[in-house]
């Protein structure tokens, strides 16, 4: 199975491409914004596609035309303004969903925010609310499609070394989780069709990632 990783140059994306390339059954195609970002991925043996997420749906669809699954792990980042939040986390996500459909790909994994409910938008700090709102509507757009989707809701992301153990639920309290372990959870999601049509939160825990995701 070939997987297009959108936002591959992000920290979760890099871990995910690396993990995919270590498997026997999966192959990564890294969607990046700049040609100079390609060397990291080509050294892993992964294909690359240089596409600006703020560009056209057709450009993303072209990158997705030869893959079996798409993972959206792009994000505007904490230092950008509301404009980039809208253009990347909402518009970029929706365009990727539409491009996936246009390319005839069925499997889609969305990396979202920990809590994207309407209540979470209302309770979020003013500076964070636009991000939660963007993720909320991107998630809702995906769930309204006929794609074989899974939505992964990571907790507070850290750059700590992954432990290989997490807690997976859909009603847990907010906690932290290494980006490396989120990438492992995405990998397990891709490898298991039992995750199709589901969404789950993932934070640090005591259960091996594969067991936690497969048993949810």
UniProtKB/TrEMBL annotation:
Annotated NAD(P)-binding domain residues: 7-192
Database matches in InterPro entries: NAD(P)-bd_dom (IPR016040), NAD(P)-bd_dom_sf (IPR036291)
Alphabetized PANTHER family for the sequence: FLAVIN REDUCTASE-RELATED (PTHR15020), UPF0659 PROTEIN YMR090W (PTHR15020:SF50)
Designated name of the protein: SDR family oxidoreductase
Organism: Allobacillus salarius
